[in-house]
């Protein structure tokens, strides 16, 4: 492994593929990123004379050349000679006299030489030859660590599955049915929230240590389901925004007529030729019903009171203007989808 391998591993696989194509690397299509980097490192190192002038590969050969330059070794220091002191013969009854150099003087005295053992000389030599790492080695080490961190992050991202889930969600939401469903759930959710009053059930005690006050616990009152105050607004909204527009979209189905040529649907046919709901007719019928009921206060042959109409109109986001805006979005989406199918 050369010092240029960390640089290759830090690149993306499309860049490595480009290097393989430029240098005529054989059978590289089945390699993964790591194997492709190793194969390229060997191939480029062996053919340095051929591809050394390529500007795309200059960074690789710079790292390869920096590691090939031998580091200068410091010259060995001359080891000091070991001084041997001859033993002084002891005379009985007398202390041994130290040998005094007659040429030495008190004013210019020379220091005594220190005796060095082989172990101390080895330690001194190791200390002398321990030099700091070269910049090329440090850069190669940083490149290897960076490549490992990047590879770990890529593997963690792939294993999490977030990318696949995001693609699935985008595919599910990229349809006109999804848009219509979101608009209906927004209207129905706002209506149900107002029709279910909250009833106080209990109160959580305060926690002085955490400075938490008392919190009232409330739950929806389900007994409202047996009263007309719930069913009258809910049925009015269901008829105006869902049921009657769906019936109109099933019978007045222009998209089904264009797909089947007006032929009668028979049993046993494939699902592609079965009748479905026309989104354009659905939104147009809903817009007419919303305007007739909530603007002109048409009450379905006196089935609903004026209070019920006002109640539904007041809780839906944007009131009748918000519902008409939702139908306009549906019409535009239907036309845009039809244009995309024709193109």
Automatic annotation (TrEMBL):
Keyword rRNA-binding: no
UniProt biased composition (Basic and acidic residues): 98-110
Protein name: Uncharacterized protein
Cross-referenced InterPro entries: Put_GTT3
Coiled coil: none
GO cellular component, one term: membrane
Membrane-spanning intervals of the chain: 230-252
Entry keyword set: Membrane, Transmembrane, Transmembrane helix
UniProt feature, compositional bias: Polar residues: 116-125
Annotated stretches, region: Disordered: 66-125
Keyword DNA damage: no
């Amino acid at each position: 492994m050369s010092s240029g391998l960390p640089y290759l591993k830090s690149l993306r696989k499309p860049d490595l593929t480009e290097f393989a194509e430029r240098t005529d690397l054989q059978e590289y299509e089945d390699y993964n990123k790591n194997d492709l980097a190793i194969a390229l490192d060997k191939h480029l190192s062996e053919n340095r004379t051929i591809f050394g002038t390529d500007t795309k590969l200059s960074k690789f050969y710079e790292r390869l050349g920096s590691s090939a330059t031998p580091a200068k070794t410091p010259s060995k220091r001359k080891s000091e000679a070991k001084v041997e002191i001859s033993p002084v013969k002891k005379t009985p009854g007398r202390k041994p006299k130290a040998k005094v150099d007659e040429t030495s003087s008190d004013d210019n005295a020379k220091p005594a030489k220190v005796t060095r053992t082989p172990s101390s000389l080895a330690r001194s030599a190791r200390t002398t030859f321990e030099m700091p790492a070269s910049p090329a080695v440090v850069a190669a080490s940083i490149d290897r660590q960076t490549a490992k961190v990047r590879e770990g992050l890529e593997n963690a991202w792939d294993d999490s599955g977030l990318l696949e889930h995001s693609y699935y969600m985008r595919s599910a939401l990229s349809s006109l049915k999804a848009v219509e469903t979101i608009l209906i759930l927004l209207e129905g959710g706002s209506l149900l929230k107002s029709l279910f009053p909250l009833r106080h059930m209990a109160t959580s005690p305060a926690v002085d240590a955490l400075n938490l006050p008392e919190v009232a616990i409330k739950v929806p009152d389900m007994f409202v389901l047996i009263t007309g105050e719930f069913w009258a607004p809910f049925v009015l909204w269901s008829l105006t925004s869902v049921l009657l527009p769906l019936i109109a979209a099933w019978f007045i189905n222009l998209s089904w007529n264009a797909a089947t040529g007006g032929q009668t649907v028979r049993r046993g046919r494939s699902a592609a030729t079965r009748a479905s709901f026309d989104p354009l007719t659905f939104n147009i019928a809903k817009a007419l019903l919303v305007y007739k009921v909530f603007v002109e206060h048409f009450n379905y042959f006196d089935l609903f009171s004026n209070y019920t109409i006002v109640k539904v109109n007041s809780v839906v986001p944007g009131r009748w203007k918000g519902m008409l805006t939702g139908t306009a979005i549906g019409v535009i989406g239907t036309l845009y989808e039809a244009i995309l199918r024709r193109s």
